[in-house]
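Minutes, structural biology subgroup

Action item carried over from last meeting: produce the structure token record for Adenine DNA glycosylase (Nocardia rhizosphaerihabitans). EB confirmed the sequence was re-checked against the source entry. Recorded below for completeness.
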Amino acid sequence: MSIDAEALMDWFADTARDLPWRKPEATAWHILMSEIMLQQTPVVRVEPIWREWVARWPVPSAMAASSQAEVLRAWGKLGYPRRALRLHECARVLAAEHGDVVPADVDVLLSLPGIGAYTARAVACFAYGQRVPVVDTNVRRVVARAVHGREPGNPSSRDLAETEALLPVPVPRAAKFSAALMELGALVCTARNPDCAHCPLPACAWVEAGKPAAEVARKVQKYEGTDRQARGRLLDVLRDASGPVEQVRLDLAWTRDPGQRARALDSLLVDGLIEQTEDGLFALAGEGGAAG
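Output recorded by EB:
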């Protein structure tokens, strides 16, 4: 079974969310920032931060001129802050080696710091209108259900080829189809409660098969009490500080498990998100030299 591109794109034309990075004035750099922010983070949390970043860093060289600490502070509580550091590193490369312009070629995009297979193709497609498969969890879910009649399994090397085979041949339609496919997974063909009654597709292999359950139960990621939460608490202290702080400030930020706190602190240092000064204080990346 295939996917009715006409029905999907008509639905998208009528119901697509009015997202700022979809506006004609959004540059490839703006779209790249949105794609990095949206990884594992809901639109409602991303949009206000993205708007601040576009105003503050409209081009890569503007971000490159800022410190790592400034970027980490501006990232706020979006989660997975290594994304912010990698984006800062990417901005420096774009400013220095690409004339302050995000490249359109997928292979060149893949050579940039922090840009993986999904992000490279998303930028090529959504910023430059190219006919390339863009596969995120939403797209994988729609293709698995509508085409193959099952819940999605683990990511596979087949995903790109299977999605590319569904793309309309005309390049402009292919880019719009990719956006529509992703939107369908985000709004209608959701993981937990798919709204099949409002699905625009006239045929779906999963529905015809009786909506079979996933062969492997989906694991629910917890956050409370995890190392991720501990890392976040420690980072909060440093983001709120005007300079390096003593370790006791960090100790008070996570008292439930000293061993876990030490592990979280060490991982932040290893990831380059924070640094330790010569006199034993802790600071955000790039701010350790403030102590003396």
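Discussion: The chain has a mean pLDDT of 94.
Next step: EB to file the record with the rest of the batch.
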